[in-house]
Amino acid sequence: MTSRPPGEQAVVERLQGELAQATAVIAEAYRGTTGLIRLLEAIGRPRPPDALVDDTLTVLSDVFGCAVTCLLRPAGDRLLVTNSCGLPEQSPAFAQGWDLSHAPERTVRDGHSTRVPIGSDVAQLPEDLRGLGLRNVVWIPLTRGPEPEDLLLLCRRGSPFEDSDLPVLESMGYRLRLALQEGERSLVIERLAQVGHRMAQHLDEGPLMAEAARLFRLVTSAQGAWSITVADGTARLRAVAGRSTYVGGRWPRPVAELVGWHDLCHGEVMNRTAQAVDQEQIAGSLLAVPVRHGGEVVAVLYAVHSRPRLFTQDTVDISTLFASYLKVALTNAELYRALGHSEEYLRLITDSISDLIAVVDGEGRCTYVSPSHSRELSYRPADLLGRSLLDLVHPQEKEFVRTALKTCGPRESTRTAEYRLLTGENRWAWLESALRPVPGRDTTYVISSRVIDERRKLQDELLRRATHDPLTGLANRVLARQVLDRALDGPGQGQVGVLFCDLDKFKDVNDRLGHETGDELLVQVSRRLSACMGPGHLLARFGGDEFVVVVDGVTDRSRVTELAHRMLSTLRDPFPLAGDRVQVSASIGGVLGTRGRSVAVELLRDADAAMYAAKDDGGSQLEIFDAAASRRSLDRLSLRSALQQALELGQLSVEYQPVVRLDNGIITGFEALLRWRHPERGPVSAEVFIPLAEETGAIVELGEWVLRQACRQLRQWNGMFPGRRLGVSVNLSTRQLRVPGIAKTLLGIVHAEGIDPCDLWLEITERGQVPGEAAAIMGVLRSEGVRFALDDFGMSHSNLSHLRQLSVQRLKIDRSFVSGLTECTVDRGIVNGILVIAQSLGLDVVAEGVERREQCEELLSLGCEQAQGHLLSVPLSACHATGLLRSGVPLDLSSRFPEPDGRFSDGRAVEGQVAIEGQVAIEGQVAVVGGSPITGHGVPRNSA
Fold first, then answer.
1. Average confidence (pLDDT) over 83-90
2. Same domain, residue pair 337 and 358
3. How many domains does the chain have?
4. Which of 484, 522, 617, 868 has the fewest beta carbons closer than 10 A?
């Protein structure tokens, strides 16, 4: 063997080290990107708020390896647990909460994320969490600034949270809060659109007020609601919906005793917390909305919620709009009750009310017009008599009103319509009209109308608020998704591009100059980015310091990249802020979508993931998420999902690779190896699915299943070959060592299968992070006779510390050192060093990955007695391994070692990876054992 010059050898070693470091960095980045994609997908997928929180907590627990993840809300001196992943449903934390003192003061008071190492001081944890073996927790506020409303608590049993975890968790917490606010706002607006018209169908005051209470509770998402009418200084309770704890007592009562009457009588909404109602304290929030008619309060709507925060401004605005619906319904009810008496009485009523009353014939000509038209529309009744109402309707709504009149038949009680009408002052006014056919006159209609200009302005403002960012005036995430959905579903040309832009270190600006200055920076950034946009571009503020651009009609990738570079360039000039010039940059991720195939949520997720990749590269960068990367990411997610069912569907099996003495060819035991044959993908490499099982936690169930199969097989072999003492090795994941009671579980399997614990070897890999409690668990198992091996020895920086902390009985030399044993003096020196360490500590040694004769000879010369590898035997099914044992003779190792010319010492040529010539030869579908064929499946030749 020729050794390299010292200088060349040093270069080789340095390059190998740099390659290993680069590989580790790439693997870590891939895992981080996969986790981010899952989190972004969980938060970005539209669904109800409760489902959004539950799904997000589950994914957070999985991605960050947490035992418990909770969403909490401060309430007085308590922390209320609103959602959790890891706490049992019957936990008192959901009803009683925890003492606020368990949360770090800097988190609750100032809104800063806090990591807390627990160690042995479990008193820092709430009582519900003290028995779970938690060692590290992190507190994340969902809102930025002092006294956050909601907090995230993530708890681990093992490794501490890293510095790099906090920015990701803060970003995800902030995104979760924005998604919740958006979901709640959209839900309230949707509910109002669904229920607003329902009250107009009630003409009696009792059913109308009952319907109002029920719908008001639905619109405000309250736990309880009630409606009250006010007349002659007396308040009367008319209906209760939902929780009725706070509406007891004496009714009717003077209006002065109503909660919030001082505000209500002036037409103001009352929105407060912790109110006293009927001598009982509300430990939450109370909303009261007056219904005014003719300048007087005629009704009051109340809503109550146990949460300790005010109803949102959106809910208040919508409640005010709902009150106007109720006012119209009350007026209509009063009007139509009067209509029941006589036409003369109708004329008397309509002449005195403020609403606009008109009677029209089938052609839309006015036959009666109330005097209120003069006040509201600047028309004298005489000017409108005989004139067609349709002549005054706005051209865009004329056909709509004509159709409403034609389809308002005698079987319909009421039809409503909103449209614009030209006033006598030559301006357009919005009207809301209720159309009702006159009984007995199929072509005559009574139209009761009111001017709703103010309400339409409020509705337009609500729509603008629901689709635009209040700070910058840009489109918000709701409108951005709608535009992206339309572009992807539309018939346009080319592709649809998405750019996801996030300012680098924006939090530093907030912390240094304050949140008001941070808001001013966002406004200036939005102006500069808007100047970069062109036709077919939509710029939206997605939340916080994130901006999204939708580019329709993209012909090639260059158009998207050019726009992204313009955005990066325009942000390079300093921003004048608070008397200073602040330099900021941005990271941009891009993706291209195909019409009819791509989905908006997935494009936004991929662009966001690409943005994080750009940020990882140092910021002020552009990264494009290509289709191949997307397919790889989704393929990995699909494989993770399939693995969850692989055991149940019988796709998993166990193979056994012999451990052989090199001096006499005797088999001393087997290593049990898990195999997965997917029905569509075929054999899946253990190097692919084992890390997936580790990430999902499925490795715990799979590890126990492999141990049970291996013990059962060893018991059969002991019965078939009583004169031999075999051992079986099973890999033990470091994830299993973190499971409470794992020692008892493993010993239960060993005893249930009836094998001697001394025949079992549990292998702990050096490449996993061994938890601190591993030594205690191993001590319990070792006291029962179970032996331990340290797998992949030499591949981790903590070799010697593991030898000191973990009392193992065997070292397994990693295949990477064995493969270079005969060519690399460094590898030979490492192997020799491992053997010296093992000999000094009295440890057994097994070399892995033996594939050539020279390696066997070198191992024997160094004093290594046992080995496994494809030269000796590939992993075998239980049937083939049994046939190998049944042959009853040692392996003829001398004839198995090929000479340098590629032939065995007896003249046979090396063919493929035949396991043991003359003992067990795997040839297609037949295993030959001692000259007799054993039919069975071929043995996979992928490495162990």
1. 87
2. no
3. 5
4. 617
